[in-house]
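Cross-check.
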Amino acid sequence: MWARVIEFMLACWLSLSPFILRYSDEEPTYFWASDFTCAFLIALFSLLSFWHPLRKIHLMNLGVAIWLWTLGYLNFPEVALPPQENSVAIGLLLLMLALIPNHAHLPPPSWRDFYDRG
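Predicted model, tokenized:
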């Protein structure tokens, strides 16, 4: 579950980044809207994955990650702006983290069964 906690922390960063990085008025407003919407979705999917019936909903973060990466990568001018760099970095981190299963800290089930029998 450690990966879900880090995803939630990335959502917190993404929601605070417009204020920390001080997005300028020249940058499109859809960066603001995208950051807040994506932060909400990342936090929602990460927290819902703690509930056993929805334990695989964290995979929805893959779609959010692809959106963030695409938004940042395809909108690059000659000089990258902070919101674009932030979107690309968070998108790539989220792609890696969303693939990690919830119980990655435990050995495989067959190993646990063998250990319990012995």
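The helical segments are 2-20, 30-48, 61-74, 82-98, 109-117. The longest helix spans residues 2-20. Passed to J.P. for a second look.
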